[in-house]
Amino acid sequence: MDPKHQRRELTDGRFIPVLGFGTFAPEEVPKSEALEATKFAIGAGFRHIDCAYVYQNEEQVGQAIRSKIADGTVKREDIFYTSKLWATFLRPELVRPALEKSLKNLQLDYVDLYIIHFPVAMKPGEEAYPKDENGKMMFDTVDLCRTWEAMEKCKDAGLAKSIGVSNFNHKQLEKILNKPGLKYKPVCNQVECHPYLNQSKLLDFCKSKDIVLVAYSALGSQRDPKWVDQSLPVLLDDPLLGAIAKKHKRSPALIALRYQLQRGVVVLAKSYKEKETKENMQVFDFELPPEDMKAIDGLNRNIRYCDFQFAAGHPEYPFSEEY
């Protein structure tokens, strides 16, 4: 495989591998599984590891990366590691300490990419999801442009090689892009994106601004009942995806991943099953013809599995906009 075709250049001149390994797992999954799954993924050829402070498994994921460096499988510079600034740390003075906390958990000197996880600020403190006595989410008011300036300082300090955002709509992106004195553009916007929510308008917008779109829940999410409405259709059971998969002698999951790569989207594949992790690496072994791409485009029905309804009352809630 040609490694050049497996990465995209970012606006800051660095490169992001187009296929990433997602490490989020529901609470009931033991943290030790993140360690084993990440070690296996690196062994299988994944070089882009996507994690976040709020997943509460950076310690294990960091351990996996360090053990694969120690055994000679990879060097630190071969790994592209993404972490995320959680919503309770959006105040400018909390940004660097939050990143330093992640680095301490990981026992790494820097992250390759640090992104604002969600544009909705929540009350600062130890609680990831701070609620009042009635169980209502406690919000905070923060100017995202000030948060971004603190992110820029983390890049200048060498703690993060690249900086970006996640779950931003085009208006929120524009706010940062048009900020007076902008030093660094967000290199990416990581959003939910799959054949049922293909984000074509947001993708076009991001391409026009040289921002890479990174797709999470690319296989239709893990359907954690805490977050996802269980009545929504299961993406990988879609008959059209199944038919295209059969035609190419691949799994529906591989078809969904390949679809993103051919649209110029960086895609995250999340599985703690070794067989699936290995299989996901086969996404580079085939190509979808234009008619299949067009057919998959036609599956879009704006189904958002992760709508973060708890934040809907906040003025920065991103999903009230069309894109």
From TrEMBL:
Pfam families in alphabetical order:
Aldo_ket_red
Tell me which residues make up the NADP-dependent oxidoreductase domain: 19-300
| UniProt keyword terms in alphabetical order | NADP, Oxidoreductase
Site, as annotated: Lowers pKa of active site Tyr: 84
Q: Which InterPro entries match?
A: AKR, AKR1C, Aldo/ket_reductase_CS, NAD(P)_OxRdtase_dom_sf, NADP_OxRdtase_dom
Report the superkingdom from the record: Eukaryota
GO MF assignments? oxidoreductase activity
Q: What PANTHER family has UniProt attached to this entry? A: ALDO/KETO REDUCTASE
Q: Report the sequence similarity comment from the record.
A: Belongs to the aldo/keto reductase family.
What is the protein name for this chain? Dihydrodiol dehydrogenase 3-like
Q: Which organism is it from?
A: Camelus ferus (Wild bactrian camel)
